[in-house]
Amino acid sequence: GLHGGKMERIKTGTTFNDIAGVDEVKDEVMEVVQFLRNPRRFLDLGARSPSGVLLVGPPGTGKTLLARAVAGEAGVPFFSVAGSEFEEMYVGVGAARVRGMFEQARKNAPCILFMDEFDGVGKQRSATGQESDDSVQTINQLLTEMDGFDDNTGVVVMAATNRPAALDNALTRPGRFDRVIHLTLPNLEGRAQILEVHKRGKRVDEDIDFRKVARATAGFTGADLMNLMNASAVLAVRQGQTLITEPLIFQALENIHQERMGHFGTAS
Ligand code: ATP
Q1: What's the gap in Å between 125 CA and the centre of ligand 1?
Q2: Is the ipTM value over 0.90, yes or no?
Q3: Full-model pTM
């Protein structure tokens, strides 16, 4: 339908096994997983359902992956919508979309309702009146829906942003997005673990020293490391090799560095 039509229901087979280098973060969301697995048990004990979890971190650090993994671990449906879906030409459509989206989520509870590019929705309402009426209406509808969670609907909202400063303060009050989880660039150990995840299902030489690769990739996100492993596989194919070897990985890494330099206009 028109309202909330772009919300996707995804059956996620993603688990905590697919996300690495973020052990503390997994611990933080475990409570949400446990709630979703058995909401009744929580509610019978008078425990408040977790309402909103805000995932903050640079692009490619695994925010979407984490939200999917929470749904996968709990075995519940995962509904996904991008913040940009609420930016509408016509006043009121954004708010109607929000309403429709929560309606669908409630029908399928327990579930995860994931909002990507959340800064697009929760823009700081400025006193200067610069925001459109529509953006204010959309946020207000979102707040209304989340405040309605007092009756424990079994819908856990997870939202991702890489610009937390752009969010409306009203969104992070208790009962709304009262849990904020930060995803950061992985450290050496984290990068080594993420590389382990992304070598799965690939033909890799047993002799590869992945710690060495991890040391050479400071500043890389999980998405960058995934790209590196994929680029290495592609190189192997191109060069007619049957295995991903360490030199191939370093060659792929060199290519990536060259491309990045290219973005700064440096001649190669
Ligand atoms: P964006 O802000 O650009 O949407 P994001 O933080 O949501 O980024 P994801 O889309 O979750 O990042 O990450 C992209 C891909 O990078 C994932 O599907 C996964 O393959 C890989 N990836 C990112 N972080 C990790 C991680 N911690 N462990 C394993 N893989 C990761």
Answers
A1: 29
A2: yes
A3: 0.88
